[in-house]
Amino acid sequence: MLAHFQALLEGIVTNPDTRIANLPLLSAAEYHQLLVAWNQTSCDYPDLCIHQLFQAQAARMPDATAVVLADEQLTYQELDRRANQLAHYLQQLGVSSESLVGICLDRSLEMVIGILGIWKAGGAYIPSIQIIPAIA
Fold this sequence. Notes:
Elements: H1 2-14, H2 28-37, H3 50-60, E1 65-69, E2 72-75, H4 76-92, E3 100-103, H5 109-121, E4 124-127
Parallel strand pairs: 3-4
Antiparallel strand pairs: 1-2
């Protein structure tokens, strides 16, 4: 904090007409470390969709836990199998790359299966909310 106070005082001496909110608190080294060096987070991403990345992970680690909710869990293999089953069913119903499919589920493993299954079928999911009528 002493270094920050010193940077603030130096800023006041250097720029006495500057509003205090616009004066620096970080030294040049801190600024570079916090806002430049630690922000170098760019990386190359594969040109794949989320469901394709998931499928690759399921092939690499089929018995690893993929999703946990309370006392329920699914492995990558189980989640992939159930999502594939739903995807095939949705495709039989006509879901394809231009399809929007709504989901109205509470947070659950079935919701994750639904989203992944819709993506695998080629569709896009639309989250929807459940409207509970007011009791008078």
